[in-house]
Write a structure and sequence with these properties.
Low-confidence stretches of chain B: none
Strand content of chain B: 25-35%
CATH architecture of the largest domain in chain A: 3-Layer(bba) Sandwich
Helix content of chain A: 25-40%
Number of domains of chain B: 1
Mean pLDDT of chain A: 92
Oligomer: heterodimer
Order of helices and strands of chain B: EEEHEEEH
Structural class of chain A: alpha/beta
Number of helices of chain B: 2
Low-confidence stretches of chain A: 1-21
Largest interface: A-B, 23 and 27 residues
Shape of chain A: globular
CATH topology of chain B: Folate-binding fold
Number of domains of chain A: 2
Number of helices of chain A: 11
CATH class of chain B: Alpha Beta
Radius of gyration of chain B: 15 Å
CATH topology of the largest domain in chain A: FAD/NAD(P)-binding domain
Order of helices and strands of chain A: HEHEEHEHEHEEHEEEEEHEEEEHEEEHHH
Largest sheet of chain A: 8 strands, mixed
CATH superfamily of chain B: Folate-binding superfamily
Number of strands of chain A: 19
Number of strands of chain B: 6
Structural class of chain B: alpha+beta
Strand order of the largest sheet of chain B: 3-4-5-6
Bound molecules: flavin-adenine dinucleotide, zinc ion
CATH architecture of chain B: 2-Layer Sandwich
Strand order of the largest sheet of chain A: 5-6-4-14-15-16-13-17
Helix content of chain B: 10-25%
Largest sheet of chain B: 4 strands, antiparallel
CATH superfamily of the largest domain in chain A: FAD/NAD(P)-binding domain
Strand content of chain A: 15-25%
Chain lengths: ~450, ~90
Amino acid sequence: MDRQVNETSVPSNTRPGKSTAKYPAKYSAFSLIKHGLAKSDWPRAWREHDLKKSYDVVIIGAGIHGLATAYYLATNHGITNIAIVDKGYVGGGGSGRNTSIVRSNYLTPEGVRFYNRSVHLYQDLSADLNFNIMFGQMGHLTLAHNDSSLRTMRWRAEVNKLEGIDSEVIGPDDIKQIVPYMDTSTNTRYPIVGALFHPPGGTVRHDAVNWGYARGADVRGCEIHQNTEVLGITTIGDEVTGVTTNRGQISTKIVVNCTAGWASLINAMVGLKMPIVTHPLQAAVTEPVKKFLNTVVVSGSLHVYVSQTDRGELVFGASTDPYASYSMRGSLEFTEELAGHVLELIPSIAKMRVLRQWAGLCDMTPDFSPIMGFTPVKGYVVDVGWGTYGFKAGPVSGEAMAQLIATQRVPDIISTFDFARFAEGRLVGEKGAAAVGH
Amino acid sequence: MIVVPCPWCGDRNSMEFRAAGESKKRPDVNTATPEQWRTYLYTKSNLADWVTETWYHRAGCRRYFAIERHTVTNEIRTSRLPAAQIRLDESKGS
Ligand SMILES: Cc1cc2nc3c(=O)[nH]c(=O)nc-3n(C[C@H](O)[C@H](O)[C@H](O)COP(=O)(O)OP(=O)(O)OC[C@H]3O[C@@H](n4cnc5c(N)ncnc54)[C@H](O)[C@@H]3O)c2cc1C
Ligand SMILES: [Zn+2]
């Protein structure tokens, strides 16, 4: 609980998202050498607290969405009397289990604009958070194995270009240039006919993003409460008055649901039902080998995607498990199918061994788009429906939700993601760009 | 993997099926408002509990049936034909 406070301050900067707050134990080359030589422990990146009786805002879920919302509330709006409560630990949900693909080559203009803002925030995030999030914009390649996917890709490329995003359709020869190990011959079950190439896409180190936001929120005065489970939400009339947790009662006027896969269970506490179904999504990682894959490769038809980490491991993912469940167990079918499909794309990795596989929960919506903003219950706001694509959206969502909470108005960038769209029949239609390529 | 007991074919790997989702009452198409119809289409209970849901044995008998499954443990405790199907079979005298 005690931590060493080092009075070095971050140079002031006026960019939004960047703050002049003092970081205890600022990370730097100097602090690395100092701790290395002294062999001393690093101070904890965030503190523990007793639960107070009341907060201005209670955020449920200490994943990237909850943490980023707190961080931007504090940084951009000066609201710091915030509790972020999580029944488990920071990043124990999807935020610590995802394959960390970041991209903005979506299909709808609103989707493209939204995710592109996140890409921009990610570009500056290491500096803003004083935490190396290892954002590698190595490029993102979505393969087409038939005419209809190629058609959707051309459509996406045009929408992307109109929004000023680097995105183009390329042919098998160019693909072979970018990924020499890929089998682009016509001698396969599903020959590759083209791909959507998105150079700004890439991956981040998800843990670093979670921890960086947690540390940034903590140092600005927000309280992170791990092992604090929300058991109920109290209301008077149609208005939120507080939250019941396993550590006691908190009173607050604003509750934010950032619980992704568990979102429906929290909604039920205020009597709301949304179009969300929780599906497990699995991923796997191999032993590390020398770097040979310099882009993220996705194949919708083969239900698989792969990237290589800086450490050399291949990270694989697929589409969600085919039935609703809150179970986070992996399955043999997943690994078998994955291996078969990956080998169709890159046969030469046949001898690599899978080290680990795991699952996380994804809150799927019918239009592959989030549900963000106010609800019929006053003071109860949601940032849910993140499905299999919510990690890349963390920064922009946190920024927009903070603005919404601070100003009590819906920012333009998220206005089409409102809950009312389902009853009003205004679905967003992002399936063509989000079903497998998270 | 979960094993799904098909009322016709017995215990089979879940990969042979399509999970059609939680069972719910369909509103009357003649009187439902667009809002009611959309609520029926989209809104889900998504419980972490025992749920009654419809499955389709895609790579088998190609029949729809209902199961009770716990969505946290994936344990399945009952499997039966949908009520409509049972009535249909009875009227045929089978
Ligand atoms: C295998 C996998 C791969 C993925 N790949 C990608 C990808 O490449 N790119 C991408 O953009 N997205 C990806 N995603 C999706 C992404 O991980 C999620 O959308 C995102 O992390 C959601 O973040 P969150 O902060 O909203 O929720 P989470 O990180 O899931 O956090 C929710 C938190 O709520 C807490 N909680 C739940 N109930 C309660 C309660 N009653 N009281 C208190 N706390 C509670 C949980 O403990 C949890 O920590 C992937 C997901 C998975 C599972
Ligand atoms: Zn059957």
